[in-house]
Structures are given as structure tokens and as C-alpha cells.
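Re: the 58-residue chain
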Amino acid sequence: MEISKITPQAKYDKTHTTGLYLKLNKETDKDIIEKLEASGNKQGYIKGLIRADIKSNK
């Protein structure tokens, strides 16, 4: 019998979260990369933009 090595955090993440990946080109997306780097909190900045878009399209 194998002892489960899944941590409580890993169990929570599997149940409650989704990871997304965004691939940006260093040349053609340079403006986006620079803006994200300057924002500090990349995840919060992107979420804010999406939520503002959702609110404006209701």
C-alpha cells in the first residue's frame, strides 16, 4: 500500500484552481511584456482588465 504524498495545498489547488499559460513573443509583443512587467502584480492586473471588460459588456 502506497502512502499518499499529496499535500493539503496540492489537494486544494487541484479542486479549486486552474492554471493558464500565456506565451508572448519578445519582439511582436514587447509592448505587452513591458506593461505587464511595470504593473508589479501581473495576475491582478490581468484579472482587473478582464473583469472591467466583463462589466462593460453586460
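The helical segments are 8-16, 30-39, 42-56.
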